[in-house]
């Protein structure tokens, strides 16, 4: 069964390895796999943070230009593995060179398949849909209300910027996370879970590492 699909629903990897074999670290995703048994796994919030930091450009919320080829190969290799169901992924020392014109065509098709907001990039929100991200953490990457204009976004920002300092600090972001999860999932989660999700979300979008989200950083989380 193929668990990869082009939709807003997070897919699940069904990865299998025969007894006694080892799933080799041929790409970044393989480190999140149970390498000794057939498993269906979810990517935890912290693992998702690691993925964004590895593939995304520093200070940006999309897969870096210099990483897009590797990301495509790594992601499609896992897809091929799930679809073909071989006993183990074979490691190759050198990846095949792709002609520039052919690669650009392939890249364009790949991005168009997963680029939900049609901005020509694979951003963090796209990644959350491409990967089997843990629920309900994945709901934080679904836009909870339509922001039809910059004015609508400013209203949202002001709603959570309780101390009016022009930033969203941890406690303010925690309130946003709580409201978003309740709206999207109708669940009342434990305080420790809310704090963990808030911490990870802050680390993902706090591009200048000052411990809070500025207007532009909060915009990226909601655009």
TrEMBL record:
GO molecular function terms listed in the Swiss-Prot or TrEMBL record: calcium ion binding
Keyword GTP-binding among UniProt keywords: no
Record PROSITE patterns: EF_HAND_1, EF_HAND_2
SUPFAM superfamilies registered for this protein in UniProt: EF-hand (SSF47473)
Coiled coil: none
Keyword Coiled coil applies: no
Keywords carried by this UniProt record: Calcium
Domain EF-hand stretches: 102-137, 148-183
A biological-process GO annotation: regulation of presynaptic cytosolic calcium ion concentration
Pfam families with a match to the protein in the record: EF-hand_5
GO cellular component: cytosol; dendrite; nucleus; terminal bouton
Protein name: Calbindin-32-like protein
């Amino acid at each position: 069964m193929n668990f990869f699909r082009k939709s807003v629903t997070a897919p699940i990897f069904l990865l299998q390895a025969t007894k006694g074999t080892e799933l080799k670290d041929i790409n970044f995703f393989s480190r999140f796999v149970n390498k000794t048994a057939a498993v269906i796994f979810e990517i935890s919030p912290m693992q998702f943070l690691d993925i964004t930091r590895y593939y995304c450009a520093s200070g940006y919320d999309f897969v870096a230009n210099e990483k897009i080829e590797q990301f495509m190969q790594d992601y499609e290799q896992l897809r091929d593995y799930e679809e073909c169901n071989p006993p183990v992924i074979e490691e190759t020392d050198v990846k095949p060179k792709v002609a520039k014109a052919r690669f650009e065509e392939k890249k364009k098709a790949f991005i168009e398949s997963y680029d939900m907001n049609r901005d020509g990039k694979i951003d963090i929100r796209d990644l959350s849909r491409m990967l089997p991200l843990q629920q309900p953490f994945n709901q934080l990457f679904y836009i909870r209300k339509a922001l039809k204009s910059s004015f609508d976004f400013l209203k949202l920002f002001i709603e959570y910027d309780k101390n009016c300092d022009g930033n969203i600090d941890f406690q303010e972001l925690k309130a946003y996370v709580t409201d978003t999860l309740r709206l999207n999932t109708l669940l009342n989660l434990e305080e420790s879970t809310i704090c963990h999700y808030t911490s990870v979300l802050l680390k993902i979008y706090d591009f200048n590492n000052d411990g809070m989200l500025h207007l532009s950083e909060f915009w990226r989380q909601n655009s």
